């Protein structure tokens, strides 16, 4: 057998066994397992998984495989991406301060790679910077990284070889280290999210690594809303959300319903005296932030506050149609662009109705800008948006989506009038029209 064939066969076997272990460890198959083992609460990587390890001569041994994969951002959008062990992000590595770890890295990509352990204190030669601290891991090769964990906290891993391409293609993962003596204020649920952006242009199926600013998809753990799982908790539980950012933008992460505390970062969990109350925390590029809160019943939005980051694919060079009466020119434009539909005169909210109805078919393999549906209608969000769902009656460790919140009666915002001239509100400035008849006809229940 030629060397390359042997490597391919060995690699396929490794990959297959990694996948079967992955399935066993998949969060969906472990809904009701006890939440605690070996002194820590395992993290829950939404839509993701934690890599199983084995003890080998007192060393915790992990095996990562860098490879091309097929990934689904949400039903309706798939792409050829690069990741680890079959997924993007790669599996979460989870260990305990003081552990000796060995991480085998097999390269099944068509180009060389390395892995940098972002934020970890280790010998320089284990730092994973191609050319500086090690030779490249060539296609087909396996390298071993080995070091002792001297810290705890939320960390990441990613290539330090052809980073622009390899990270744009999805190569990244989380590396969580638990403190060896437990935590003075333990958490009941420990979520982990990795933020990223993708230039998956409408109608295409491979991310474009050359894009610097105008991205199409904004993801938490490489998924967009509504495909991002909710963060589920029981009323009164202490919940931690660990957030890492390996995208090309900073993300002000905002949560409704509570003042969360920022309790940790790349530097581990901070002393309680340093915790601070916030409702929005910027997670900068290359940074990690841990936030914690005591769960309050309800369905609460949890999202990036950059408004374009809670949208899916959109054109970046379309003209501004806001306020433009396009009646009459739609037919003319259709002679040039068959299927063109005049839109946007009154804002983009109608977009979801058009795409839902199927009469405005977008490009292949391309998600509508906003897709979510809630108990009160279209949610009008996509991208980096999900929900924190807190209920009084959940069992510990039950992460299943509990459905929509049943609001106590009298606690939901309600309509008191459908007359635009209702009441006598104080107004200043220069309102442009007092003609209520000029408003578009309400179409809350419109079906195309
Ligand atoms: Cu953002």
TrEMBL record:
Pfam families: Cu-oxidase_2, Cu-oxidase_3. Coiled coil: none annotated. CDD domains: CuRO_1_2dMco_1, CuRO_D2_2dMcoN_like. The keyword NAD does not apply. The keyword Metal-binding applies. Keywords: Copper, Metal-binding, Oxidoreductase, Signal. Residues 70-181, 207-318 form the Plastocyanin-like domain. This is Multicopper oxidase, type 3. It comes from Isoalcanivorax pacificus W11-5. The lineage of its organism: Bacteria, Pseudomonadati, Pseudomonadota, Gammaproteobacteria, Oceanospirillales.
